[in-house]
Amino acid sequence: xxxxxxxxxxxxxxxxxxxxxxxxxxxxxxxxxxxxxxxxxxxxxxxxxxxxxxxxxxxxxxxxxxxxxxxxxxxxxxxxxxxxxxxxxxxxxxxxxxxxxxxxxxxxxxxxxxxxxxx
Length: 119
What we know:
About 65% of the residues lie in helices and about 5% in strands. The chain is mainly α. The chain folds into two domains: about 1-60; about 70-119, no CATH class. Strands 1-2 form a two-stranded antiparallel ribbon. The longest helix has 27 residues, at about 60-85. The chain is elongated and about 55 Å long.
């Protein structure tokens, strides 16, 4: 892989093959059922593309980390709004007891059963 002692990027066929292989493996076990699950699968796909483009194509890490982080935060808050709409006060009680996966309370505050984004 390393010809003259430098890095050997540009192996796009290998990157595409690996993304297709991992996605087909994941979809064989986890079939998305609704719009939200397909959207989440899109984030996983972006992660796989970034991962294998980093390995075999060219370095993307500096660009992809903040994009994937904000996509994760956005999707987490969309799911939180869906849970709030479906479970109501029971979810508010649960959310007060259980901390977020990451400490991202500054993005969303639950007030009067409404999730509102703050700056």
